[in-house]
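Single Protein Entry

Contents — chain, fold
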Amino acid sequence: MKSDDRSEAERFGRRLRQLDQVLYSKELGRPYTDAELAAEIGTSPSQVNNLRNGKSVARTDRAVRLASFYGVQAEYFVLPEGHPYVTQVDEHLNAVRKEREGVPLERGNRTAGQTAASVGDNAQVRGIAEDLAELPPEMLDTVGSIVNQLRRAIGLSPRSHGKGPK
């Protein structure tokens, strides 16, 4: 393998490992095995192992399937370090990693007259948000309705909470 091919394979493997270590289903609770990932992209477990270990680069069709599986553009595997898209994906992976470790994420655009710093320091607000994140999806509509009732009670406009205009 030529030096350029080796560095491309190493980059591919490093980025695949980054995706793999962070983006797996909550239910699974662990990265995918070589066999599980191979079944998803239509190759052998040994080929997945070679990809992860930077020994080869996936064919275009398999790179596209991998990218789709992990929710990134296929170019992520081959773009140079420092490229804006690579930086964006890496920042997203760091945010997901922090969330899994229980580190609260910063959130912009705070409302209700509080600054981002005062809301960010409010353990009660943070605790309620974390509790909401654990509720089943069918309960979130009810919580959204209650929040809108409270907003109306203090003179604020209701929000759609991601469900579109009401």
